[in-house]
Specification:
Layout: E1 7-11, H1 19-29, E2 33-38, H2 41-52, E3 58-61, H3 67-81, E4 86-89, H4 108-133, E5 146-152, H5 164-184, E6 189-196, H6 210-220, H7 229-240, E7 251-254
Parallel strand pairs: 1-2, 1-4, 2-3, 4-5, 5-6, 6-7
Helix pairs in contact: 1-7, 3-4, 4-5
Bound molecules: nicotinamide-adenine-dinucleotide (NAD).
The site of nicotinamide-adenine-dinucleotide has 27 residues, from helix 1 and strand 5.
């Protein structure tokens, strides 16, 4: 099993459609011991119910907009696991009114909120969890790496109608992946992103005309289909495992090849 004996935390499970939930299942199937977080009390019961079905024993609150909750999460993970082998960041948020119409009409508040929750949170989590992920103390040098993985979308690199402020947040997130990879690489911590194709989830429902994106994939993507959360999760497990021990600062598209197309 690819993640046998590995301990990790996954942020971003909201319900059974969440990409984070598919990653949790795939990581569990590969032998990982998991902790799951929930954004607030509204999500707690649903996350615990899902996690319990996998035998998950550790649940922590973490609103990534609050520094104290990020610090408390790192403290709890230290007490629970001692060391952390991986961290999955599958978190994003923008106001619904910012995900329609023209990007030019983005509000200051809407811009800052999308950046804070969807992009800066990765950096804040890496800072707080760095001591737990640090592999530089291994006797024989860095033999096993630690892995940080985030989720992004094509809208961070190209214009996708209505994705707007979230596209700009994903661009910042992808740049953060490269800067964090450079900072944390010497500690044996890899930082990567999976760029998923459109999938019907709670967050995606907030993007105006999202169903049009889904409808176009079977005609336009090289693999002639939409991707599933399971396909995204399998690629994610690769990054979390030592199979990807030589890979950092990377954005991997799991989108049935759609990103490769011009017209
Ligand atoms: P989702 O709604 O299931 O997951 C988003 C998660 O973000 C939820 O669990 C929510 O609780 C969490 N969240 C929002 N604000 C938060 C906060 N302040 N603190 C902590 N958590 C917070 O939707 P999803 O599609 O599974 O999204 C997961 C990731 O995948 C996101 O980064 C999203 O942008 C990305 N992504 C999604 C798609 C898609 O089409 N669904 C495509 C590419 C990338």
């Amino acid at each position: 099993m690819l993640l046998s004996g590995r301990k990790g935390v996954i942020l971003g499970v909201a319900n059974k459609r969440s990409i984070a939930w598919a990653i949790a299942k795939a990581a569990h199937d590969q032998g990982a011991e998991l902790a799951l977080t929930y954004a607030n009390d509204r999500f707690k019961e649903g996350v615990v119910e899902l996690g319990d079905s996998l035998g998950v024993k550790h649940y922590f609150p973490c609103d990534v907009g609050r520094d104290q909750e990020i610090t408390a999460l790192a403290d709890s993970l230290k007490k629970t696991f001692g060391q952390l082998d991986f961290l999955v960041h599958a978190v994003a948020f923008a106001k619904k009114e910012e995900l329609q119409g023209g990007y030019v009409d983005t509000s200051r508040e809407g811009y800052l909120l999308a950046q804070e929750i969807s992009s800066f949170s990765l950096t804040a989590l890496c800072k707080a969890c760095k001591p737990l992920l640090d592999r530089s103390g291994q006797a024989e040098g860095i033999e096993r790496t630690a892995s940080v993985l985030t989720l992004t979308y094509l809208g961070g690199q190209r214009v996708v109608p209505n994705y707007n402020v979230m596209g700009v947040a994903k661009a910042a997130l992808e740049a953060s992946v490269r800067y964090l990879a450079a900072d944390l690489g010497p500690l044996g911590i890899r930082v990567n992103a999976v760029s998923a194709g459109p999938i019907k989830t709670l967050s995606a429902a907030g993007v105006s005309s999202f169903s049009t994106l889904l409808d176009q994939m079977p005609d336009r993507a090289p693999l002639r289909k939409n991707v599933t959360t399971e396909e995204v999760a399998d690629a994610s497990v690769f990054f979390l495992s030592e199979m990807a021990r030589g890979v950092t600062g990377e954005v991997l598209f799991v989108d049935a090849g759609f990103h490769a197309m011009g017209l």
